[in-house]
Design brief:
- By secondary structure, this protein is α/β, with parallel strands linked by helices.
- The chain has four domains: 99 residues, Nuclear Transport Factor 2, Chain: A (Roll); 102 residues, Four Helix Bundle (Hemerythrin (Met), subunit A), CATH 1.20.120; 294 residues, Glycogen Phosphorylase B (Rossmann fold), CATH 3.40.50.2000; 215 residues, Rossmann fold.
- The protein contains 28 helices and 26 strands.
- The strands form five sheets. The protein has an eight-stranded mixed beta sheet with strand order 12-13-11-10-14-15-16-19, with helices on both faces. A seven-stranded mixed beta sheet has the order 20-23-22-21-24-25-26, with helices on both faces.
- A hairpin with a 5-residue loop joins strand 5 and strand 6.
- Helix 16 packs antiparallel against helix 28 and helix 19 runs parallel beside helix 21.
- The chain is globular, with a radius of gyration of 28 Å.
- The relative contact order is 0.09.
Length: 796
């Protein structure tokens, strides 16, 4: 297929656009990314003011994600809309844009970036598109992330157009349903098929509508049992009536809203397993350790909230069942003062939530005693999955109802357990490393010694294609924005030269993707003005720590401690960019005059860090504090704060009219932003990643560009300047941040949606997807055994 530039820009602009494109100097490596292309075009326009505004060329180049310099042509990756790219070749001879296939593009790119490869190199090509012929597909990229809505529409349409087949599936799904070994909903001996179900429903509804003992639930269920209906329809006469009417409507005239609401009422979930193997997973003395941060907080808070929601969900179905949740992580014998050596640990403030730890084992089955980086745990996960299944069955007395994976390693283990145990699987990526490290695919061999991306990227592909449904915290995590590619989108096609060419790695238009943002514990992160909920002793303790304590873990003595504080909390690594914030602060004289900077970050002694990247950032931080003479304006707290202490820290900063700043170069979501907002603290957060969907810019907070330090600190100075002129300015942003957090980002809302997804996708899995995915499952199994296990084994 051939296009030409005239299809994208006005004819009078074509000479200028060609001159710019063909005049670009090939860099090393021979490719330019979007930002570099736009910067180069901006420079071109400044050098040629006579060219005019070139609006069409700007529009074309803003959609150009990459330009690859081949010997006799330019290869242009044109992202005409999110999750959709076209690949063109432009030659110097004419204006034609010749379409390239993805495989041809990847082969060419591989050769250009790795000219040292053998001339006869035939790299493995991975194409998963042929395996996605079994289910519905979305058309509009703007609907990606709303999978449950699309799937409900698809299934209700099938119930209407193919009633015999789909009514039978629904009947079988209900008939087979049980919890804790107890049959629920339908007695198959009395209700033998979907036709008999409709007849029995009619008799049951007739009885319920004229029932003369509406408050005697045992007697009602005793009568319903004669029609073939068992427990699980509701905890009151009105609830049972509503649920049965929903089923009757679905069988007679299905629609998507009724189908979703009915499935959401089925008591399907009482035992849940959450998988999070890496790091130091515990409740105390772990945050801030290597590989241990927001994910631990997320999983613990999710587990607590899920237990509460499931208890209510089961009760509303009329069942007396206590939910049980297991968090599966790694047991580390050399615990370093944590509880990581304990096999079973009850989660505080819960009735039946447990951390179950399973050790890593060497091939000779000896236990691995020490912590291992998340980038090097791959050879242990296969046996870990086998051992975890045995422990799960022992603790639960059987199978769970839902398995949730977290991060790449947890998602792989969830995939193995789901396959072995026959349980629905949900994936949560948290952060896909491929998007965090520039050129991590192209130069995988240079990253390999430290990061082993050749293994992790394949793990991601296997897990995301096997998952029944995937949760992301934001839409852009999946499909990015108009200006940037999403984390999942980056797996559509890519090359790891000399190793693998991924022609089609993930189908973003499959309805498995759903956006469900997390919340925070509102018992811990609550507004600063709830004074009675704030113990005086803790207020003093944390206040002293932030502003005055002098010991080996606290650096800096504030010369003017009454100035409003800029507060930040994160682990010291390159992506979190705390050193970038400190350097920007050091260069901005106005900001230094208006506010102090307080950071809670890792440790102050690089020798105490076991992580090379963290230690390097610690040393860099010391250098910046000396270079800009900041010891009288910056406090560095090198201690691990517990969650309650962190919550009080946000509130103390709010008491003093301060702000929270999250300056990461990229942030997949940003739990600390939510924590600050729930505390009533005005927030400033990176514009790259999840904060775009948390913060309403200049209403409930501010988005900042950490790659432009001067504009970032200018924004902070401007805010403090307005606050000095009018105290209501701070109050307004505090109030709107709190309103935004409480209305959109809470754990009860998250758990309601997660449970609903489990039930809807459970029916989809039972009715068609699991059987239809057989070929994809078999192909993924080959990749697991022939690729993953072979490469992972080399790390031992």
């Amino acid at each position: 297929m051939v296009d030409d530039l005239n299809s994208f820009v006005e004819e009078q602009e074509i000479p200028r656009l060609r001159e710019f494109l063909l005049g670009l100097e090939p860099p090393e490596p021979p490719l330019l990314l979007r930002n570099d292309i736009l910067m180069a075009f901006h420079a071109y326009c400044e050098q040629h003011p006579e060219a005019g505004d070139l609006a069409g060329s700007w529009r074309f180049l803003r959609k150009t994600q990459e330009i690859l310099f081949a010997a006799d042509m330019l290869i242009i990756i044109y992202r005409h809309r999110r999750a959709n790219c076209r690949i063109f070749a432009l030659s110097p001879e004419n204006d034609q844009l010749t379409a390239l296939s993805v495989l041809d593009f990847l082969t060419l790119k591989e050769r250009l970036l790795r000219p040292d490869l053998p001339l006869q190199q035939r790299t493995l090509a991975l194409d998963l598109v042929p395996f996605y012929d079994y289910g519905p597909g979305l058309k509009d990229p703007n609907t990606i992330g709303q999978g449950i809505k699309f799937l409900n529409r698809h299934m209700s349409g099938n119930l209407s157009s193919q009633p015999e087949k789909w009514n039978r599936s629904l009947y079988e799904f209900l008939k087979l349903h049980q919890l804790h070994g107890v049959q629920l909903l339908l007695n198959g001996a009395l209700v033998g098929n979907s036709g008999e179900l409709e007849a029995a429903l009619g008799r049951a509804l007739d009885f319920l509508e004229r029932c003369r003992y509406p408050d005697d639930l045992p007697r009602i269920y005793q009568r319903l049992a004669k029609f073939g209906f068992l427990e699980g329809w509701g905890d009151s006469l009105p609830r049972i009536l509503e649920t049965m009417h929903l089923l009757q409507d679905i069988l007679e005239q299905p629609d998507e809203a009724n189908l979703e609401e009915f499935l959401a009422r089925i008591p399907m979930v009482s035992k849940v397993v959450l998988i999070s193997p890496h790091g130091w997973f515990g409740q105390d003395n772990v945050l801030g350790r290597p590989d241990t941060g927001g994910q631990v907080v997320y999983v613990l808070d999710q587990a607590k909230a899920l237990e509460q929601f499931l208890a209510g969900d089961l009760k509303s179905a009329g069942l007396v069942i206590e939910p049980k949740i297991l968090i599966i992580t790694r047991l580390i014998p050399e615990d370093e003062g944590t509880t990581s050596d304990q096999r079973l640990e009850k989660v505080m403030d819960t009735a039946n939530v447990w951390i179950l730890r399973v050790p890593f084992r060497y091939p000779d089955h000896e236990v691995v005693p020490h912590w291992i980086s998340r980038f090097r745990i791959w050879p242990f996960l296969d046996q870990f999955s086998v051992d975890a299944e045995e422990e799960i069955r022992r603790e639960l007395g059987g199978r769970p109802d839902l398995i949730v994976g977290n991060y790449s390693d947890g998602n792989l283990v969830a995939t193995r357990l789901s396959k072995s145990m026959g349980v629905i699987q949900c994936n949560i990526a948290h952060a896909l490393e491929k998007s965090k490290y520039l050129y991590s695919d192209l130069y995988w061999h240079q990253f390999e010694q430290e990061y082993n991306f050749s293994i992790q990227f394949m793990v991601d592909l296997i897990a995301m294609n096997q998952a029944n449904f995937i949760i992301s915290s934001t839409v852009q995590e999946i499909t990015g924005t108009d200006d940037s590619i999403g984390q999942y989108e980056s797996y559509q096609f890519f090359t790891m030269p000399g190793l693998i060419n991924v022609v089609s790695g993930i189908n973003l238009f499959h309805p498995r993707f759903n956006v469900i943002p997390p919340g925070v514990s509102q018992d811990i992160y609550f507004p600063y003005n709830r004074k009675r909920s704030r113990p005086a002793r803790m207020r003093k303790q944390i206040g002293d720590l932030l502003f005055s304590t002098e010991d080996g873990d606290c650096l800096g003595r504030l010369a003017q401690p009454d100035k409003p504080p800029i507060f930040t909390i994160a682990r010291l690594d390159r992506i979190k960019n705390l050193t970038g914030l400190v350097e920007a602060y050091g260069r901005d004289e106005e900001l230094r005059q208006r506010a102090n900077l307080i950071m809670v970050a890792s440790v102050v002694d690089p020798e105490r860090s076991k992580d090379a990247e963290e230690a390097a950032e610690i040393r860099k931080m010391h250098g910046l504090l000396e270079q800009y003479q900041l010891h009288g304006q910056v406090r560095w707290i090198g201690k691990f704060l517990g969650k309650r202490e962190t919550g009080e820290a946000y509130r103390i900063v709010a008491d003093r009219g301060g702000i929270f700043v999250q300056p990461a170069l990229f942030e997949a979501f940003g739990l600390t932003i939510l924590e600050a907002m729930h505390s009533g603290l005005p927030v400033f957060a990176t514009q790259f990643g999840g904060p775009l969907e948390i913060i309403e810019h200049e209403r409930s907070g501010f988005l900042i560009n950490p790659t432009d330090p001067a504009s970032m600190t200018a924004r902070l100075s401007e805010f403090f300047r307005h606050c000095a002129e009018d105290s209501r300015h701070w109050q307004g942003f505090s109030r709107r941040a709190l309103e935004r957090a409480q209305s959109r980002f809470t754990w009860p809302l998250h758990c309601q949606k997660l449970t609903r997804l489990t039930k809807v996708y459970g029916f989809w899995r039972y009715s068609i997807s699991q059987q239809a995915k057989t070929r994809l499952n078999q192909y993924s199994e080959l990749l697991y055994h022939l690729y993953f296990k072979e490469r992972a084994g080399r790390l031992l």
